[in-house]
Design goal:
The chain has 237 residues and is mostly helical. It has one domain. It is built from eight helices and three strands; from the N terminus they run H-H-H-E-E-E-H-H-H-H-H. Helix 2 packs antiparallel against helix 8, helix 3 runs parallel beside helix 5 and helix 6 runs antiparallel to helix 7.
C-alpha cells in the first residue's frame, strides 16, 4: 500500500502545477507593483492604524515582523503583523496586502460566518495532523499482520480518510475568507481615495495571485483525499 500511495502521487500533479504557477504569479506581481509607489504616499502601517481607529478596533496593534510576504492577522493576540517589506512601504502592492490583513480583523469584528468556521476548524486540523499517520499505520498493521480485513483495521483506515476529508473542508472554508478579505481591501482603498482606479488594477493583480495559492491548496487536499481513497480501495480488493 505504501508503494501504491507514493506511486499514485502523480494524481497531485495538477495541483502542484497550479501551486507553482500561483507562487510565480505572486512573486511576479509583488515584485512589479511593490516598485509602484501610491500617489497618496501613505505608508501601509500608518494606514492600518488609522483604519483600526476608524473601525473602533484601536486595541489591535500593528507590528513589524521579519520575512518576505509573511503578513498575517493574529486574532488571539489581536495583532496585525506586517512583513518588513510591507510595513514601511507606500507601494500599491503593500497597501493592498496590509488592507487584506485588516479585512480579516473586520471579519472577526463582524462575526463573518466563513471566518468563524475556519477559526473553529484550525485547532481541530492541528490535532488531526498529529493523529493522521499514526492511525493510518495502526490500521495497516492490523490489516497486514494481526487481523487481515478486520473491522478494527478498517476503523483506523477510515479515520485516516476522515482526517484527509477535514483537510479538504478547512481549505474549502479558507477560500471565501481570503477572497472576502481581498474584496474588503479593494473597497477600502477605493472608497478612502488612497488609490485611484489605475493603481487599484495593480493591487488587484497582487491579491488575486495570492488567492490562487489557496485554490491550489484546496485542489491538492482534494487530490490527496482521492489518492488515499483509491489506494485503500485497491488494497481491500
Amino acid at each position: 500500500m505504501y508503494f501504491e500511495y507514493y506511486l499514485m502521487g502523480i494524481i497531485l500533479l495538477p495541483g502542484i502545477i497550479i501551486a507553482i504557477i500561483a507562487q510565480s504569479k505572486v512573486s511576479s506581481a509583488y515584485n512589479k507593483y511593490n516598485k509602484v509607489l501610491s500617489k497618496s504616499n501613505v505608508v501601509a502601517s500608518d494606514l492600518i492604524r488609522q483604519l483600526l481607529i476608524n473601525a473602533n478596533l484601536s486595541h489591535i496593534s500593528v507590528n513589524q515582523i521579519p520575512g518576505h510576504l509573511s503578513d498575517y492577522y493574529d486574532p488571539k493576540n489581536e495583532t496585525i503583523c506586517l512583513s518588513s517589506g510591507v510595513y514601511n512601504s507606500s507601494s500599491i502592492a503593500s497597501l493592498g496586502i496590509a488592507c487584506h490583513e485588516f479585512g480579516h480583523a473586520l471579519q472577526k469584528k463582524e462575526n463573518y460566518a466563513p471566518y468563524k468556521i475556519r477559526q473553529f476548524l484550525i485547532p481541530v486540523t492541528n490535532v488531526v495532523s498529529s493523529l493522521l499517520w499514526p492511525l493510518v499505520i495502526i490500521g495497516l498493521l492490523f490489516n497486514i499482520f494481526a487481523m487481515p480485513n478486520s473491522i478494527i483495521g478498517s476503523i483506523f483506515l477510515w479515520c485516516g480518510i476522515a482526517f484527509f476529508g477535514i483537510s479538504v473542508i478547512i481549505n474549502l472554508a479558507t477560500l471565501p475568507v481570503e477572497y472576502n478579505a481581498s474584496n474588503r481591501a479593494i473597497t477600502i482603498l477605493r472608497e478612502s481615495g488612497i488609490l485611484d482606479e489605475e493603481e487599484l488594477k495593480g493591487t488587484k493583480k497582487v491579491l488575486n495571485a495570492a488567492a490562487l495559492t489557496y485554490v491550489a491548496s484546496l485542489l491538492i487536499s482534494i487530490l490527496n483525499l482521492i489518492r488515499f481513497l483509491l489506494v485503500v480501495n485497491r488494497d481491500r480488493e
